[in-house]
Design a protein that fits this description.
Length: 285
Amino acid sequence: MLNPYLLSDALLSSWLLEDAPTGDLTGLLLGLPERHGVLHFTARDAMCVCGSEEALRMGQLRGLTCAGTMVASGRTLQPGAPILSLSGPANELMVVWKMAQTLMEYLSGIASETAELVAQAQQQQPGVVVSCTRKHFPGIKAAAIKAILCGGAIPHRLGLSDSLLLFAEHRQFVPQLSPAELVQHYRRHSPERKLVVEVVTSAEALAWAQAGVDVLQLEKFSPVQIAALRAELEPLSRSPVIVAAGGIQRSNVRAYAASGADVLVTSAPYQAPPRDVQVRFTPMP
């Protein structure tokens, strides 16, 4: 998926202000506001690039212009490929430099790991969907979601307010209600939303499936357990969507894709190392 959206000017400006609240003192004392140049960002690693639009916009917010190169987020790049070039006053290039570079490195790391997981899963099972949790570092939701979208995954849920995911931690407060009663409760109070229930045993999964739940989230089931449960659910007239969650990463994603799960939920991309973005300055006469 290419360039799903652009982070807000307010957010980008706040990051620039955090790093350079009164500009670049070193450059100011050298007289760099009177000099001009071009700042080039290049992929040092192979990557699924992400954050190039934000890097460009950071430059524009500081009076810089695109110098002919801008590769959209979501593109796959080989080492040495150009990403973005910015031109303008040298002191403003210095202000934008590190924030733009760091943002692209971190987001490209998330996007690249996501793309690898999606590729491996869909090579094993073309119809399977990879979904990423909300277990990213607090405060970076918009950026993290952009990165996983660029890598070809979807958000599992954006937060507690946008979906119905019934955990055992919820259910312990209403032990008197059966699975069928809880399903009917949510269908009555929120009929337009699908109900997802997390389970940790096959017996729980069967009970909720028979109650008519829309989606079963299987927490830390092995691929073998998922395949066995899928077979048990086949006789049902209405089988729920099967979501595998917990510990899915590059080393086991193929096995989970082959298990019969419809969706693979993972947090692994958020722990991916950054992809290296090289920086080079060209002074202008």
